[in-house]
């Protein structure tokens, strides 16, 4: 199995690239986020997930281990193949996927091509509790606990102001990280709004 490729970018298309490794070209499927940062002749190293089927061997490439981990988690969900997982990673970063799952924000997941409301809900349900340690970067706040009353009320307040559930969850978790778990609702909402305004 191929786990990593290091070489030069030979060509880039809408959904894949060819990596030249010592004269051998490997066709690698990748997210548009990864592909948009590449140019022909550029040196690169990709983490690879190899999928073997009766009729094909497909390589999926990722610039970061977090992307690979998110891809592997997504493809454990029934109905999510490699292409759909890449579509999700094309519109959401691993951190955003983890926050969407933690917040039950199926609408954000459904922004990806090939992901309908039912599949998005299944992803959010089946991956809940499985992505936090894998996909969140060290500097990102952990998803807030769903049972926290102040957090729930703060998210509802931000949603009423037009925030998407995923963005509201992230802003509130950052505010709670600043203020501590015993913070009052008004303070959490105020800090969450202030932090969101800076981004």
Question: What does it look like?
Answer:
- The protein has helices spanning 32-35, 65-74, 82-91, 94-103, 106-109, 117-126, 132-135, 149-160, 165-179, 185-198, and strands spanning 4-12, 16-21, 24-29, 43-52, 57-62.
- It has 199 residues and is an alpha+beta fold.
- The chain has three domains: 4-62, Nucleic acid-binding proteins (OB fold (Dihydrolipoamide Acetyltransferase, E2P), Beta Barrel), CATH 2.40.50.140; 65-135, 5' to 3' exonuclease, C-terminal subdomain (DNA polymerase, domain 1), CATH 1.10.150.20; 149-198, Helicase, Ruva Protein, domain 3 (Orthogonal Bundle), CATH 1.10.8.
- It has a five-stranded mixed β-barrel with strand order 1-2-3-5-4.
- A hairpin with a 2-residue loop joins strand 2 (16-21) and strand 3 (24-29).
- Helix 2 packs across helix 3 (82-91), helix 8 (149-160) crosses helix 9 and helix 9 (165-179) crosses helix 10.
- The longest helix is centred in the C-terminal third of the chain and has 15 residues, at 165-179.
- It is elongated and about 60 Å long.
- The relative contact order is 0.10.
- The model is unreliable at 133-147 (pLDDT under 50).
- Residues 146-199 are annotated as: Domain III.
- This is Holliday junction branch migration complex subunit RuvA.
């Amino acid at each position: 199995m191929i786990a990593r490729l290091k070489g030069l970018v030979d060509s880039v298309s809408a959904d894949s690239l060819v990596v030249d490794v010592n004269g051998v070209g490997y066709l690698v499927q990748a997210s548009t986020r990864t592909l948009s940062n590449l140019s022909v002749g550029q040196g690169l190293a990709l983490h690879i997930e190899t999928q073997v089927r009766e009729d094909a061997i497909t390589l999926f490439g990722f610039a970061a281990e977090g992307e690979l981990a998110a891809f592997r988690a997504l493809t454990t969900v029934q109905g999510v193949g490699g292409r759909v997982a890449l579509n999700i990673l094309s519109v959401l970063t691993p951190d955003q996927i983890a926050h969407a799952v933690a917040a039950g924000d199926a609408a954000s997941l459904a922004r990806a091509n090939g992901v309908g409301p039912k599949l998005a809900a299944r992803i959010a349900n089946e991956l809940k509790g499985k992505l936090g340690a894998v996909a969140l970067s060290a500097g990102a706040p952990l998803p807030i606990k769903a049972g926290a009353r102040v957090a729930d009320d703060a998210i509802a307040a931000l949603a009423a102001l037009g925030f998407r559930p995923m963005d509201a969850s992230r802003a509130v978790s950052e505010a709670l990280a600043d203020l501590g778990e015993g913070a009052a609702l008004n303070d959490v909402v105020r800090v969450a709004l202030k932090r969101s305004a800076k981004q």
